[in-house]
Amino acid sequence: MATAENKLAFDGGWEYAAAPESTDHVTIDKRYGLFINGEFVAPEKGRYFDTINPATEKKLSRVADASDIDVARAVAAARSAYRGPWSRMKAAERGKYIYRIARIIQERAREFAAIESMDGGKPIRESRDIDIPLAAAHFFYYAGWADKLDYAFPARKPRSLGVAGQIIPWNFPMLMAAWKIAPALACGNTVVLKPAETTPLTALKLAEVIADAGLPPGVVNIVTGAGKTGAALVEHPDVDKIAFTGSTNVGKIIQRSLAGSSKKYTLELGGKAANIIFADAPIDQAVEGIVNGIFFNQGHVCCAGSRLLVQESVADEVIAKLKERMQTLIVGDPMDKNTDIGAINSPMQLEKIETYLEVGQQEGGEMYQSSCRVPDTGYWCRPTIFTGVSQSNRVVQEEIFGPVLAIQTFRRFDEAISKANNTPYGLSGGVWTDKGSKIFKMTQSLRAGVVWANTFNKFDPASPFGGYKESGVGREGGLHGLDAYLELGA
Amino acid sequence: MALQAVKAGQPMPDLSRVSAVDEVGVNERVARFQSRSIKTSSKIEALHLILSMIDLTTLEGQDTPGKVRQLCQKAIHLHDALPGLPQVAAVCVYPTMVSVAKRALEGHDIKVASVATAFPSGMSTLSVKLDDTRMAVEAGADEIDMVISRGAFLAGDYRYVFDEIQAVREACGAAHLKVILETGELGTLDRVRRASVLAMHAGADFIKTSTGKIQPAATMQVTLVMLQAIRDYYVETGRMVGMKPAGGISTSKLAVHYLVMLRETLGNAWMTPEWFRFGASSLANDVLMQLMKQATGVYQSGDYFSKD
Amino acid sequence: MAKAAKRVAVAKTYKIYIDGKFPRTESGRYFALRDKKGGVIANVCRGSRKDFRNAVVAARKAQPGWEKASAYLRGQILYRIAELLEGRREQFVAELMLQGSTKRAAEKEVDASIDRLIYFAGWADKYQQVFSAVNPVSSSHFNFSVLEPTGVVSILAPESSGLLGLVSNVAPAIVGGNTCVALASESRPLCAVSFAEVLHASDVPAGVVNLLTGFRAELGDQFASHMDVNAVVYCDGDNSTVQKLAADNVKRVVARSRIDWSKDDSQHPYLIRDTQEVKTTWHPIGS
Predict the structure, then answer these.
(1) Which uninterrupted H or E stretch holds A268?
(2) Contacts of C285 in chain B (CB under 8 A)
(3) Is residue A296 scored above 60 in pLDDT?
(4) What average pLDDT score do residues B285-300 get?
(5) Which residues in chain A are closer than 8 Å to B25, comparing Cβ atoms?
(6) Are A74 and A220 in contact (CB under 8 A)?
(7) Do A17 and B43 touch (CB under 8 A)?
(8) Average pLDDT rounded to a whole number, residues C196-202
(9) Disulfide engineering: C181 pairs with which of A131, A420, B78, C55, CB 3.0-4.6 Å?
(10) Are A353 and A383 in contact (CB under 8 A)?
(11) Which of A21, A283, A285, A330 to mutate to test the interface with B (most CBs of B within 10 A)?
(12) pLDDT by residue (tens digit) across B95-111?
């Protein structure tokens, strides 16, 4: 279809002037302690680490590095709050506290959005329109469940578990905190949350919100730190439940280390989702779905549609349109309201992505990147696609966690399914076709916890999320997400 | 690139090969265009561009030569207090008013566009429609805005619609042909897309959303689908086709969103009055008020802008 | 056995059940099951790692077809198992007694096993309705969550109950469209083999249930570690090794300890849900 001469031109001409998000409503302290028992306290060993803005490489704040002693203090505070007010409180009252959190997040949404983008590098448009509103919505959703749990599980008597240890990643810092804290509190548990070391700030601001909402001290504790802090939380004997979102490797370590304990666990791990485009798909929307699937949040998304499977008869058209669309993506300052793709979260992650770009080319893949400008400082990766790759290539098999798409073609339905399922992961998948019966056959055949048909990367507090196979255990969100924080007695 | 007329007697396109359109996906894409933040110099540039793309329109049963002359004066003197303004692209009137407009615009590089083909319903015979077209062209119309036979289209008689557009195209002679799909009557975006393909293959120089007489008139959703059809047609044939959303675009903010959509769908080549028009009557003054506000920093009142 | 003295009784060979066939263990090994007086009741196959591997291959092969079978059909097949078990009630009672049960206890266990199959047969086309959801998302999408079988389930059956414990764990796994490989009670393995014969005679497709006899100490790790097993159901005992090994492919670990399977409240559809995955599907609502 597309010929070389009939190409569209997207560079030059009318361009969008800088539209920076204002930061005059944002306050970030020079240093943050640990939020334990309702107040910020200094870490026992006095150690702090920097958190930087990945778009400028400038330091935003210093954050406490919690040792196992600090973790033990947090767990003790959570235990005491659990025994004390929280588990004895009327469920409806518990719910009202969670509603308060939701409301305050809404009130301070712009501030949270700005901090999220500064600390993590994601475009302000996404933190403003997706992360923060969804985080508030999660608290709203689960607040209402607090006094209705008996209706969620027929013929069972749901009981809270106790202290939940929660470890969250850097790709959706505030949203993941909400995913973890909201259902845990609604089910009557208390919480010790460890945010990721590169993106701790919104969780610490959330601690302010929790204090402002008047929650009893110790109900939510936030301990910052790196892997060692997380390990201390996982291994602490007085924790009843571990909820982890992160890499499959760490997930396996956690599952092993919990062996022999009676701790419940949920794991939300990696993915390598196939986004499958049939010839009869609404092609322009499918191209949008591909873009949203892999370039949303710089591709730092566990359910990203990182493998494109496109039916051969439309492959050339789809790839040509995708390349044109990539030219219109604006990469750069996360605080600019027109930025589509922000900064890569950390130099470590950028290095990992760049390694895969080399590997993909060494394996014989043809790499295409958009020709956009990127800033001189900060960590950046242009939107990238690989064509001419196959199942046996590493860029097809392994989770890159960046804006890198591997494209393969297929001819028949069963071939698409077989390729899509030929992975240890099973978090999500996408199907694009105008034919209803094919959608249902596809969605039934995909071994994945979330299937987007004629859409991609949609999230909602009412919608359960979680993976098959090595993508994790358990669900978060919706009614099914309650299960993770309850014991279902007869 | 100048308008390239399509050769007469082109075969009808295979509409079964036209890609499906998912409405929710279109809505999401439109929302993304609307979330673009156009500030400062970009905004001023856009507002100038919008003015230059306007087909200043009066299409009423009560239109008189006096009214048309006043409209033409407005086209010539948008707002003389603001120097450096571009001219609007065209004045759009009924066939009987073409000669009036032509005289009123003499010496100015403003086109006269005329609706034709039993506008707005199109409920007449082909011979009447051809006469209508020829009359407008003979009176001096530079551009003809025809309506498709929506009844025939909805009844599945695509051949009739295709042949009719081809015949009108021929009757236009040197005048440019804009084909109005009246998307508000087509019902679904799938049909909008098919009608766009049909019109372009039949020789449309422009495709246009609406007559302005039916609600909904232009929306960003149907315009996006039509722009995507234009893009695919260009990639396939190398021929550029223009786009004219008409009806309901009355604010600068909305018009800027249309420009964002145009830029990110068809690219720079289409960002001129030669390839993109707004069919509008009240948009111009809102743009002028915005430009004045940008120039003075003060929010404006309609009382200070002429209404013709 | 006194009556049988009139003629020479024909002893039964207890074999394992893989892919709808009754092979001997490929290892050729056996262990003698003895009565209280030390007499040999039977030589039972001492299943090997390789037997387990073959069983998993069979289970994997059978799984997609079994999952696709209609819920109604799966219910009918479970019902059919119950019917056939009822028909061979006396044999199972006798076998349980051979393995040390009193007559009363044996009868009770067999009856409960039959009833349990009926119970789960009835759930086949209902648990989905109980556990599914239509989720009211804020965007213009139809969003629903349904259960799907997790895939191949390995089951380390309860030690204390040779038939009822096995049935209580196999039935909820297969009624939900999983296929399974179960290791029978080490001290009470006979009923498992006879139960396999019942399965074989009913309409259960080959490979849906595979039953091994042998030593848990030897095979337990395999049940937990096999990379093509999606969930391990571990009844009684210390599960720490199981969970460690299960982590290699993030297996679902279902620990069922100290459950009295003879009680009515030990049966519930949450046992089915234990080996199900929640799948959520989104689709736009538009025209």
Answers:
(1) strand A264-268
(2) 24
(3) yes
(4) 94
(5) 282, 284-285, 288-289, 454-455
(6) no
(7) yes
(8) 97
(9) C55
(10) no
(11) A285
(12) 999 999 999 999 999 99
For chain A positions 242-261, those within 8 Å of chain C (CB to CB) are: 248, 251-253, 255-256, 258-260
Cα(C162)–Cα(C222) distance, integer angstroms: 21
Predicted local distance difference test score (pLDDT) of residue C143: 98
- C138 and chain B in contact, CB less than 8 A: no
What is the set of active-site residues of A?
Answer: 268, 302
Q: How far is B118 from chain C (nearest CA, A)?
A: 30
Contact B23 C284 (CB under 8 A): yes
Please give the Cα distance from A185 to A138 (Å, whole number). 12
Closest Cα in chain A, distance from residue C281 (Å): 5
Burial class of residue B52 (count of CB atoms within 10 Å of its CB; 0-12, 13-18, 19+): middle
Cross-chain residue pair B24–C287, CB shorter than 8 Å: no
Instruction: Give the mean pLDDT of A300-329.
Output: 97
Could you give the CA distance from residue B294 to residue B50 in angstroms, rounded to a whole number? 15
Starting at the edge strand found earlier in the chain, the sheet holding A58-64 runs A31-32, A58-64, A48-53
Rounded to a whole number, what is the largest CA-CA distance in chain C? 81
Do the chains contact at B235 and A320, CB–CB below 8 Å? Answer: yes
A336/B159 Cα distance (integer angstroms): 50
Which chains, if any, share at least 3 CB pairs under 8 A with chain C?
Answer: A, B
Check if C60 contacts A (Cβ < 8 Å): no
Name the band, by pLDDT with cuts 50, 70 and 90, for residue B9.
low
Q: What mean pLDDT is predicted for residues B188-198? A: 98
The residue with tokens 């999230």 is A459
Q: CB of B16 within 8 Å of any CB in chain A?
A: no
- What are the φ and ψ backbone dihedral angles of A49, each rounded to 5 degrees? -135, 160
- Which residues, in sequence order, are CB contacts of B275 under 8 Å at separation 6+? B240, B242, B243, B266, B269
- Provide the CB-side half-sphere exposure for C222 (13 A, CA): 20
Cite the active site residues of B: 145, 208, 244
Instruction: Determine whether C187 is exposed, middle or buried from the number of CB atoms within 10 Å of its CB (0-12, 13-18, 19+).
Output: exposed
Q: Does the beta-carbon distance from B23 to C141 stay under 8 Å?
A: no
Residue that has been written with the tokens 């019109």 in this structure: B199
Among the residue ranges A385-394, C4-13, C95-104, the one predicted with the least confidence is C4-13
A-B contacts at Cβ under 8 angstroms: 94
Q: Of the candidates B21, B35, B236, which has its C-beta nearest A1's C-beta?
A: B236
B246 Cα to chain C: minimum distance (Å): 23
- Judge whether residue A407 has pLDDT over 70: yes
Model confidence at A1, pLDDT cuts 50, 70, 90, reads very low
Chain A to chain C Cβ contacts (< 8 Å): 114
Q: Is the pLDDT of residue C239 over 80?
A: no
How far out from the chain centre does Cα C30 lie? 22
Report the share of chain B in percent with pLDDT over 70. 97
> Over 50: is that where the pLDDT of C191 sits?
yes
- In the β-sheet with A428-432, what is the strand arrangement from edge to edge? A366-369, A384-387, A404-410, A307-311, A274-277, A428-432, A450-453, C276-284, C141-149, C133-134
**What is the model's pLDDT at position C12?**
87
Does the distance separating the beta carbons of C248 and A155 come in below 8 Å?
no
> What is the reported pLDDT for C3?
57
Would you state the structure tokens that stand for residue A397, as one six-digit string? 């098999």
C277 touches chain A (CB under 8 A): yes
3-state secondary structure of A96: helix
Distance between CA atoms of residues A420 and A429, nearest Å: 8
Compute the distance between CA of residue A454 and CA of residue A275 in angstroms, rounded to an integer: 10
Q: Token digits for B72?
A: 């033409």
> Is A16 in contact with B42 (Cβ distance < 8 A)?
yes
Q: What are the residues whose beta carbons fall under 8 Å from the beta carbon of C155, sequence distance 6 or more? A: C166, C169, C170, C173, C180, C181, C182, C183, C223, C232, C233, C235
